[in-house]
Amino acid sequence: MISLYDTHGIPPEIARESAEELGASVELPDNFYSLVAKTHIKAEAEETTKPVLPGKTELLFYEHPFEQVFEAEVLDVVDGSVVLDRTLLYPEGGGQPADHGTLENATQVFQVVDVQKSGDVVLHKLAKPGGLQKGDHIKGCVDMRRRMAHARHHTATHLVHDSAKRVLGKHIWQAGAQKSEDRARLDISHFKRITEEELKAIELEANRRVMETVPVKTQFLPRTEAEKLFGFELYQGGVPPGKQIRVVRVGTDIEACAGTHVTNTGMIGAIKILRTERVQDGVERIEFAAGEAAVLASQERDDLLGEASGVLRVPAEQLPKTAERFFEEWKGQQKEIERLKEELAKARLRTLTAEAQEVDGLKVVVQKMGQADIDELLKAASLLAEQDYVALLGSETGKLVAAVGRSGLAKGVKAGAIIKVAAKALGGGGGGKPDLAQGGGPDVAKLDEALKVGMEKMRAGP
Fold first, then answer.
1. Confidence class for position 9, pLDDT limits 50, 70, 90
2. Are 160 and 288 in a shared domain?
3. Are 360 and 270 part of one and the same domain?
4. Which one of 270, 321, 333, 448 has the largest count of C-beta atoms within 10 Å of its C-beta?
5. Which residues of 106-121 are buried (b: 16+ CB within 10 A; e: fewer)?
6. What is the pTM of this model?
7. pLDDT, tens digit (0-9, with 9 covering 90-100), for 114-173
């Protein structure tokens, strides 16, 4: 039944009727759509079971999302966390962080740094435990700046998800989400990377939904009724427990969701997509900011453009062409540097060959090359080997390169063996192929000694 519905779109009621016509009896479970949704949600590691505490905390934030102050009674104090009979502070859940705020009695104000739900009670963790006791009457206050940032990002997540479906296709399925004060992220199932043009289209579509100022509708419904009305897509963000579920409708996006939201899309403000990445095979992550956070993110990017414009001394609109021009010039300069290095190596080659020695019938060059870098050493040594020399070149930077021409190779002389003994004298090491090897060490004061033992290795033979 699940396969028929999920793969072919055949409603379970129709499938059951067809089966009964063929004489088969089919029992359709009340949680059919929950079972379908679970096939789309990847198994997660089981969380440590939290102890269920007695009592019940009335959740005021659903009916009064914009109220900041409330009064309550302390039901209990557990490990430094306060249990209240009622609260406006939202406990962490559904990818949304907990509210922060304060609890105040007649003499003290306590900072609430975390809020968690355990069973039917809500635990308010205090920055400094102590001072509140069971039976105390307190006044609570919500950090509304944090609350509204979370609410905007949570509602924006619904819009971005819906917009991704509109742009990329109905196959899109939410694979995870996380909200914070300055940004949010949405993981969606998609078979390929999201292109830059698709990302712009998703952002534009989401902002159009914002400007429509559509009401955000929320209601608690019996699970079976909600599933009959909205199907398994209700569980995009996961399958919540309980017989009653809270359904949130943001435009055409309808999900079971327990988070806090704004009351209409216009309250979200601007939505700015910051980046996208592929977090695993078949899952794309969209990171974005909403409301004030979107403005701040845009300002940060403007600052970067401004700084880049200042460095290059051109208006922002000319940055791409200027950067491209500089890059092409840089590539040209790199080619010129390589050409000059080769010319320098050839010039040095003439000097080096003029000072060559003959050892056992081989033309040998052992020389210091000042502050030459490793590339210069490799180039010069390779050119010497091409002209059938055995070379050991050293730099005052502590680098060594050995190269062996065809005659040396025929006699069993190996560049790696030469480098091994020479680099050891510098307190280091090295290696390579028989015809070309490199190495070095930190004790540059012993460069002359390193070249000497390298020469001795050439004389000694293989």
1. very low
2. yes
3. no
4. 270
5. eeeebebebbebbeeb
6. 0.66
7. 999 998 999 999 999 888 999 999 999 999 999 999 999 999 999 999 999 999 998 898
